[in-house]
Amino acid sequence: MEHLTVNPFASLAYLVAGVCFILALRGLSSPATSQRGNRMGIIGMTIAVVTTLVTHVPTLDAGALDAVTIVEILAAIGIGAAIGIVTARKIAMTDMPQLVAAFHSLVGMAAVLVAAAAFLNPQAFGIAENGVIFVQSRIEMGLGIAIGAITFSGSVIAFLKLNGNMGGKPIMLPGRHVINLGVLAAILGLIAYFTQDQSPWIFWTVTILSFAIGFLLIIPIGGADMPVVVSMLNSYSGWAAAAMGFTLHNTAMIITGALVGSSGAILSYIMCKAMNRSFISVIAGGFGGDSAAASGEAKEQRPWKRGSAEDAAFLLGQAEQVIIVPGYGMAVSQAQHTLREMGDKLKAHGVRVKYAIHPVAGRMPGHMNVLLAEANVPYDDVFELEDINSEFAQTDIAFVIGANDVTNPAAKTDKTSPIYGMPVLDVEKAKTVLFIKRSMGGVGYAGVDNDVFYMDNTMMLLGDAKKMVEEIVKSLD
Ligand code: NAP
């Protein structure tokens, strides 16, 4: 806006912060550089916050430093940081998806509150003349509050579903597509009308409808698709922040919002592709349910072989090459440290040990990479699906630990399977498959049986992943 003086140092600082965020994203793309990436993010955020405080506190513009405002801001930062530190230290890796959902709800609510504050006091934000809000700002505000409110209520539902406070089953309202499209059209129509008429009722109706549509959009989506939804809401929260960045004339917020918005959208796309689901079908909802409900189904009785930890240790010790396939169960039982110990012992026995990571193993992208990195598994031993899949055929043992769907050959052969088309790890091609899970009844996320359990060359190791690996490690001595 022409009436706002732009501090050139602030613009420069925001640019530096933006570069830090880009470097942070780049660093986070590999476990080897992720800590550096995180540090870049912290530096960027510190630069952005300090610059905003120094240049955008209205009382500073007037020349006088309002001690009360500064104390309030510092107290808010202190409380937020304390909550963040305690949560980050306490959270279990398996609860990470719901934590991310909870954080997104806060971003959404922040966008709503900023938009509401700007609407109620536009003069202070420099977005109005004589009480008339600029048209451009009305569009930014309307979009900001709509996306923010959708992100908030959608993320709250995603949190409740992931945290088990609400069933994972899709809740299908009759005629929901018509209702959703109607509400979305009403929101867009009202934002368009808001550019002509800044009456409060329009603004607040957009807000209420947006809270409602966030709720309506997410309840029909089943637990299985929730991680995609979380990533999609992550993307929304980025766009909401970017819209508010325009309202607040804050370049750092625009850059950060656009980075979060686009990276979240790309991540959702990658997840959909790895699960062989179309983005539209995820949004339309109705896929997946409670795994407990799914496991209750009567299953075909087929013969299978059970082995003990000692049997497994004997076979592993004889192998030339072992490929370890971790999945959600490894995360649940926190078996990664013991697993690394097993890998080290096998290496000491002269066995070649590799880890195969499926892009959607676990419950969030990078889930397995993070856990293996936490357990100090060497990065050079960790391979992505496309780099290792051809090796199973020349491998003595595929050691599957708490993975299921990502090893299911039905994805390649059974057109009726819900996971048909999803790329899977070819564990069945290994000479022997050792398969750790707690019971034959338990199913993976997609709720389907796995032919690998019943193959001649498979030995089922039934029990908690961590306990089983601990026993194998003992037997390897
Ligand atoms: P999965 O198919 O969910 O299977 C998990 C396996 O772990 C089950 O066989 C379960 O059997 C076993 N298990 C659970 N707790 C265990 C414990 N304490 N000890 C030993 N075993 C345990 O897991 P996955 O192969 O990793 O596949 C991931 C699934 O999540 C895919 O369907 C994927 O599409 C979906 N998903 C992932 C993402 C992502 O971003 N990663 C996103 C969306 C969806 P028991 O109950 O018998 O033990």
From TrEMBL:
Protein name stated in the entry: NAD(P) transhydrogenase subunit beta
Gene3D superfamilies listed in its UniProt record: TPP-binding domain
Domain of life of the organism encoding this protein: Bacteria
Protein family according to the UniProt entry: Belongs to the PNT beta subunit family.
Localization (cell): Cell inner membrane
Annotated organism of origin: Sphingomonas psychrolutea
Occurrences of domain NADP transhydrogenase beta-like (ranges): 11-474
Reaction equation(s) it catalyzes: NAD(+) + NADPH + H(+)(in) = NADH + NADP(+) + H(+)(out)
Chain segments annotated as transmembrane: 6-28, 40-58, 64-87, 99-121, 141-162, 178-195, 201-221, 228-246, 252-272
Its biological purpose: The transhydrogenation between NADH and NADP is coupled to respiration and ATP hydrolysis and functions as a proton pump across the membrane.
Pfam families: PNTB
Enzyme class, spelled out: translocase
